[in-house]
Structures are given as C-alpha cells and as structure tokens.
Amino acid sequence: MSLRTPLSAAKGLGSAREGAHHWWMQRLTSLALLPLTLWLAISIVMLPEMDYASAVAWMQTPVAAIAMSLLVISLFYHVQLGLQVIIEDYVGGALKIASLIALNFTCIVMVFVGLYSIIKVSF
Amino acid sequence: MSVSQRPLSPHLQVYSWHLTMALSILHRMTGVFLSFGAVALVIVLSSLASGADAYSCVHDALTHPIGLLFLFAWTFALYFHMANGVRHLVWDAGLGLGKKVASSSGWYVLAFAVLATVASWLPMAMGALT
Questions:
Q1: Are A32 and A74 contacting, i.e. CB atoms less than 8 angstroms apart?
Q2: How far apart are CA B130 and CA B128, in angstroms?
Q3: Are A46 and A54 in contact (CB under 8 A)?
Q4: Cβ count near A71 (within 10 Å)
Q5: Chain B residues within 8 A (CB-CB) of chain A?
Q6: For labeling, which of A27, A99, A109, B73 is most exposed (least CB within 10 Å)?
Q7: A26-57 pLDDT tens trace
Q8: H-helix or E-strand containing B83?
Q9: How many CB pairs under 8 A join A and B?
C-alpha cells in the first residue's frame, strides 16, 4: 500500500512544457541557417583562391565576419537541438546522460572557438 | 532495466520502402553527417586564426582525395538537408501534406540537391580540366 496521494502520482508525469520551445528554436535556427549556409556555399565557390592570404582577406571583410559569426551560433544551436533528439531516441540509461552532456559542452566549445577565431582574424 | 512486456510498435523492416520514408531517414543521416561538417568548419576557422602553417595543414587535408570526398559529400548533404528542411517548414505550415504532393516534393528536393551539388563543384571541375 502506498501513502502517496493520487495527485502526487499524476504530478510531474505530464509534459514539462519544454517541447514547444525546442520545436520552435529548431525551426527558428533552420530559418536563419537557410540564407547563412547558402551564403557560405556561394562564397566558397566564388572565392578565386583558397590560399592563406586570400582566405584571411575574405574573412576580414565585415560581411564575412558577421555572417560567419551568425552562422557558427545558429549552426551549433541547430546541431545541439537535432542531435539531442537523436540521442534521446537511440541512446538509453547513463550513456544517454553522458552523451547529452558531451553534446552540449561540445557545441558550446565549438561556438566559442569559432567566434574567437573569426574575431582574431578580423582584427 | 528489465525488458518491457508491452507490445512494440512495428519497426522499419515491416514497411515497404517509400520515397517519403527514405528521405525522412536521409534527413536524419545527413543531419548527423553535417554536424561533423560543422566541426570541420570550426577547425578551418581556428586554423585561419592560428597562422599560415596551421591553415596549409588543414588545406592540404581537405584537398587530399579523401578530404575532397568529404567536402563533396558535405555539399550534397547540406543541399539535401536544406531543401528537405524547407519541405518540413512547409509541412509545419500545414501545406503539402497530401500523399501525392509529399512524394513529388520529395523528388524536387532530391533534384535540387543533385543540381546544386553539381553546380557548386562545376567551376572547380572545369578548372581542374583546363
């Protein structure tokens, strides 16, 4: 026999009301990535030379520096949301928690390494 | 964890293959693959910040045949994931959910991915030939 009330059993078992935000941010980042990734693909194709000097000169232009920064942020936000769902679908138990921690830390580190690199090249 | 006695939902092998199902799986697979491409992008950026030696190291790796193969695959994966993502956004708006439309939009997505990949690599292929 349990001393728990029916209410305590029902509480906390429902939706955490977090899914809609996840869903919305995935759409929002996908919308941001649409022009940003197209810009990256077109820029790389249009870049006449791929040597160090040309790459730095390109990265130093304000448009490239800002677009690349926005790309790195929205890209890893999108990666975090997408891979989180895949991990939740296919990985269980302690490995799931470990994978989610690794995913979140990796994405944050990638954003900061990316932004630091862009800023360092720009100045 | 004990094995649940509850019935399982039928898994993939039960269904006959349809384009919509194949593209749904491909969307996930390209998403995972592109995540590694995102890390590669950060590696390129950080090499650019580290100096000419680090950059030429990364440049050599990416222009090696295996590196080029990855770049080519990332290009296709990007265009596919991009176009199929737009298809998903249209579905989210409640449009194009009919059986026939969902199938034909899938073919358009595939066609776009192939054409955009070819268009992106054509200048380099032309340059390599001349």
A1: yes
A2: 6
A3: no
A4: 21
A5: 1, 28, 31-32, 34-35, 38-39, 41-42, 45-46, 48-49, 52, 55-56, 59, 63, 75, 78-79, 82, 85-86, 88-89, 92, 120, 123-124
A6: A109
A7: 999 999 999 999 999 999 998 878 899 999 99
A8: helix B65-92
A9: 76
